[in-house]
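Predict the 3D structure for this chain.
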Amino acid sequence: MENEMIERVAKAIYDAQHFALDRETLENMARAAIAAMREPGLEIRKITTFEFAEVEWPKLIDAALAAPPVGG
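Done. Predicted structure below.
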């Protein structure tokens, strides 16, 4: 399961990049991104209910993805 997620995140990083990276670097970046999503942010520490996990966490991810890229 974890490898599948790493592969998907690595592919997303690869598809979004504007420079060449090797597979190991991409997978390390994917692992770092996944680890960051695991780290409880302020929003998660405030609410730890099932509803939060099912409803609010995806909204936070969607909001983060909708934000303009840094430097862009």
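The helical segments are 2-16, 23-38, 42-46, 50-66.
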